Amino acid sequence: MKPEMSTAVMIERVRELSVTSQESVLLNLVANRIELLLATESGISLELNSIRCALGIPPGESVHAGVVNECVRLNGEILELRNRLAAYDRAANTLKQQLAAERALVPTKVTVYQPFEVDGVDMDCIRDRTGRSDEYCEGFFDGLLDAERQIREYKDGDA
């Protein structure tokens, strides 16, 4: 059994087989065509090896099968991310609805001043939807009433 010869040696042997010039031209064309096909195969082989290396395809698996497996894996990841995003969107919408419901329960201030009377004195204050006056207004009026009492006491003390 002879050892296998390399492609380059095979091409040179084909070129040497020619006896006549016509055979020489024909065999040279065949040898050139073989070299061209080998160069093309080598380029494709280089591209396939690059793909194999980039995707981590084992040597025993075809590049086509490895590319298909990688596409299936990436598609699975995309679907998982899409499902997670949809779940986040649902959670965000639920939180928005809860926030809107809570805001509806919180009294909001009305921009209209409503007159009312404290110890015979007409006052204006912002009131909320429930009819309660603003805490600031209540504190302010308590302070006014205290000041009014102090003034009365001072006047009564001078008299």
Automatic annotation (TrEMBL):
Keyword annotations: Coiled coil
**Protein name per Swiss-Prot or TrEMBL:** Uncharacterized protein
Protein source organism: Brenneria roseae subsp. americana
Q: Which residues form a coiled coil?
A: 71-98
